[in-house]
Amino acid sequence: MAAEEITRRFISHGRVQGVGYRWFVRENARQLGLKGQVRNLSDGTVETIARGRAVSLDILKKRLLAGPVHAHVSQVTQQDMEAEREFKHFEVVY
């Protein structure tokens, strides 16, 4: 039986805008086989909504905390959520 997929929302805090963070998230999420989206929020944080196996989401959170070289991630919060829509792949939203 295949592992159940869940949807999780992450909010990344710190210097995460203007440093390639969304592209970093997209590439890592795709490598982990996740579907979803990443976008900048008006308060300077970055929101990631990802769907996949819990173990892959846990790995993604660790990578979100590390971030790309020019980012400085101070915190990543998370919450499991109901899927609001079906994602076909992982994308950057503007």
Would you kindly provide a written description of the structure presented here, covering whatever features stand out?
By secondary structure, the protein is of the alpha+beta class. It has a single domain, classed as Alpha-Beta Plaits (2-Layer Sandwich), CATH 3.30.70. The protein has helices spanning 21-31, 54-66; strands at 5-15, 35-40, 46-53, 72-81, 90-92. It has a five-stranded mixed sheet with strand order 4-1-3-2-5, covered by helices on one side. The protein is globular, with a radius of gyration of 12 Å. The mean pLDDT is 96. Pfam families: Acylphosphatase. Residues 7-94 form the Acylphosphatase-like domain. It catalyses: an acyl phosphate + H2O = a carboxylate + phosphate + H(+). It comes from Caldithrix abyssi.
